[in-house]
Amino acid sequence: MTEKTVSLPVTGMTCANCATNIERNVRKLSGVQEANVNFASERVTLTYDGSLLGMNDIVTRIRKAGYDVPEQTFDLAITGMDCVNCAMNVERALKKVDGVLDVNVNFATEHALVTAAAGMPREELVSAVEKAGYNVVQADDEAELEDAEQAARQAEIRRNMQRVLVGAIFTIPLLILSMGHDLGIWGMWSHEPWVQYLFWALATPVQFWVGREFYISGYKSIRGGSANMDVLIALGSSVAYFYSVPIALGWLSGHAYFETAAS
């Protein structure tokens, strides 16, 4: 059982009997454990089983009883999404926030359109996105938001280009030396023990500096209860890297895969 508690604003009540009517209706829903309607504050507080009941079910029931739940819409500019699966992870994380009625994440535009009950703090949505391993562009007003979004996108492109450049500087020599070593092009010197240390040295900056974003994003994704593409990348490269370390040190015999980890 996934117990949740949510407080929703309700409009259309004209007397205490209306509050009683709403309570009676929402308690008929399977999964509702407790329902209290405060006529003075015009809010309904519910405790329910989230595995049996969703926010849309509750809102639909209230509206069917003749009342309404006012809504507000948030347009969140998301950064850090690499694939359609990332968009699904963001959508899943936002839908878990109490008070969210509907979520539509567009990977192409990198925007999340969130419909929530009126009074929902934007900060709760931002926090949910960040816990899932992504970021939301923040600004005080619409004009500043557009400028901030453009700046954030440009900064993300610059960071990625820098990572690609640094990765290429270390990975290309590593690939050439490693492939030449495997094919016997470089001669016997390439089989000396110190060559494996060279491969290790070239792979390490790629693994932990270029690849640190994959580790950070993957950790946040797992902490949020899902696994994104960064988890797969970090896992695959880490297996190749850490398998190769004891071989480079001479503790194990076999083929090292530093070039696989780096590329």
Describe this protein's structure.
The chain is of the alpha+beta class and 263 residues long. The chain folds into 3 domains: 62 residues, Alpha-Beta Plaits; 67 residues, Alpha-Beta Plaits (2-Layer Sandwich); 100 residues. Helices cover 53% and strands 17% of the residues. It is built from 9 helices and 7 strands; from the N terminus they run E-H-E-E-H-E-H-E-E-H-E-H-H-H-H-H. Strands 5-6-4-7 form a 4-stranded antiparallel sheet, with helices on both faces. A 3-stranded antiparallel sheet has the order 1-3-2. Strand 5 and strand 6 form a beta hairpin. The model has no long low-confidence stretch (mean pLDDT 86).
Strand and helix layout:
Elements: E1 3-9, H1 16-26, E2 32-38, E3 43-49, H2 55-64, E4 71-79, H3 84-95, E5 100-106, E6 111-117, H4 122-131, E7 135-136, H5 142-183, H6 193-210, H7 212-223, H8 229-248, H9 258-262
Antiparallel strand pairs: 1-3, 2-3, 4-6, 4-7, 5-6
Give the end-to-end Cα distance, rounded to a whole number of Å: 44 Å
Average pLDDT level: 86
**What is the spatial order of strands in the main beta sheet?**
5-6-4-7
Helix segment tally: 9
Helix and strand run: EHEEHEHEEHEHHHHH
Instruction: Note the overall shape.
Output: elongated
Could you say which structural class the secondary elements and strand pairing correspond to? alpha+beta
- The counted number of beta strands is 7
Number of structural units classed as domains: 3
- Helix-residue proportion: 40-55%
Q: Enumerate the spans where pLDDT stays under 50 for 5 or more consecutive residues.
A: none
Q: What does the largest sheet look like?
A: 4 strands, antiparallel
